[in-house]
Amino acid sequence: MKPSPTGVILPIQYLRGVAALMVAWHHGVGQLPGLEAHFPLRFGTSGVDLFFVISGFIMVMTTAGKSVTPGSFIARRLIRVAPLYWVLTLALVAVILVAPSLFRTTVLTPASLAQSLLFIPHLSPSHAGMIWPVLVPGWTLNYEMFFYALFAASLAFRHRLAVLVATLATLVAAGYVLGPFANPIARTYTDPILLEFAAGAVIGHLWIAGRLNLPIPVSLIGALIGAALLVLRDAPPLANYTQLLGA
After folding, report:
1. Residues 59-108: pLDDT tens digits?
2. Distance in angstroms (rounded) separating the CA atoms of residues 95 and 89
3. What is the model's pTM?
């Protein structure tokens, strides 16, 4: 896996495409009444997990061997991610205010809007028990921005990867020992999903060190096993297959 002449690692771009298709699949199936509960390949939610692993990998790759300060790193990530998210969030708010009849179940509050724009996890006033921003898909960015903050802090250390992985592992361990937390911030930032960023960062480090130059057959077997695990993770019970087939 080598960068292209433009510096882009093409296999990672392909994986991003796969992850995006998985998420689109998940939301598409969810829009069809009765189908989501019985569909044999209900694996779309794993696309988000794949995105998080890729994010950890990319952060390591883009900073390896470079003198990057925490401030400059955070600034670049904010410029890359925040503006479009803010525009889309405010556009949704405008539509809600202009045509509230289209969003009868949506509750919009100043606090929720402010927390959404600042990437602060909070309980949604519209969806009971859910830690969602105004623009619901933005929940993933709450995790991304937190990871960016931790990664930026790790840049101040010589052994940045060890510090990053240890911090993420400690947070998740705290969630297991002290949780579950009622506070949405504590619940979010101790979620085991954080380990996916750590996994991506470790993979990036191993790739840079040249320890992932595996034979093609081994790589293919690993890819097949990974794909199977993604499918099985969200697969419905066996009984749902028989219902779908009318058995």
Report:
1. 999 898 888 899 999 999 999 999 999 999 999 999 999 988 888 788 89
2. 10
3. 0.82
AA letter at 37? A
- Other C-beta atoms closer than 10 Å to the C-beta of 241 total 14
Closest CA to 80 of 16, 148, 143, 8: 148
